[in-house]
Amino acid sequence: MENLLLANQVAIITGASSGIGKAIAIELAKNGASVVINYNSSRERALDTLHEVKAEGGKGIIVKADVSKEKDILRMFDKTLETFGRLDIMVANTGIQVDSPFLQMSTDSWQKVIDTNLTGQFICAREAAKIFVKQVPDPEKTEKSIGKIICMSSVHDMIPWAGHVNYAASKGGILMFMKSIAQELAPLKIRVNAISPGAIQTPINKSVWSDPAKMDTLLELIPYRRIGKPEDVAKAAAWIVSDNADYITGETLYIDGGMMLYPEFADNG
Ligand code: NAD
């Protein structure tokens, strides 16, 4: 493990009991990081992730925390330090959808999505950065990044999404949140980047990929003509938190098979 890309590093991944978060936890572990697998509801699925991490020769723990609750998040950080004694990587991955037409959207479903997707990332990033700074008292004397943060966003940080305005607003918020903290934390040698997936086959969009007609419509929006896999995102995540990407901060990596390329204009518009 010593010569792996992320050897001796510790990472927290929120929402790692399924989908993209699970794939990232496994990929970071494959690259030598010890992983904190956060989950909110299914202990069993979190244990599945841990099992796969261990099968790759990696180390990890599972920690239950609802990222819309500050005290849960603080407990997750305490547990991380108690177990591994340090933190190097924060992957703020959790995101939910509570969809409805705008005119019928309740304040509760607005707030639940903002609390989970946006405020949760704010608290996780802030607590991670506090730890990074304590670990390296004088970051100006260090060459490489002392801590890395990934904010999981979406192509809907740019593409408006009727019927999902709470989700799109949360992801649009993440864009400026990420860039602003990247600007503030760069002198401290903390790198902050976002990953914005297009359509990745996970439980969040099962209603689309499990229906062949909806899948055909979706593929028209993807110039690369396939749905993404969680591993497509996970491999990029492992790279962006590694020293191979050391000069990259404040960027959004769109992993979308070209969904952001205005595919409706491919045939003359
Ligand atoms: P998913 O539903 O498989 O994963 C979301 C995870 O978050 C689950 O493990 C869930 O248990 C967990 N979670 C939900 N509420 C939580 C809470 N309050 N506290 C802690 N954990 C909680 O979906 P996914 O597709 O893997 O989504 C992961 C991230 O990727 C999200 O931020 C999502 O917005 C983003 N994303 C996904 C796609 C896609 O096509 N799948 C596209 C763009 C962005």
In short:
This protein has helices at 19-30, 43-55, 70-84, 107-135, 165-185, 206-209, 212-219, 230-240; strands spanning 10-13, 34-39, 60-64, 89-92, 147-152, 190-197, 252-255. By secondary structure, the chain is an alpha/beta fold. The chain has a single domain (10-202, 229-262), classed as NAD(P)-binding Rossmann-like Domain (Rossmann fold).
Description:
With 269 residues, this protein is an alpha/beta fold. The protein has one domain: 3-Layer(aba) Sandwich (Rossmann fold), CATH 3.40.50. It is 42% helix and 14% strand. A seven-stranded parallel sheet has the order 3-2-1-4-5-6-7, with helices on both faces. Strand 1, helix 1 and strand 2 form a beta-alpha-beta unit. Helix 1 crosses helix 8 and helix 3 packs parallel to helix 4. The N and C termini lie far apart (51 Å). The model has no long low-confidence stretch (mean pLDDT 97). The site of nicotinamide-adenine-dinucleotide has 28 residues, from helix 1 and strand 2.
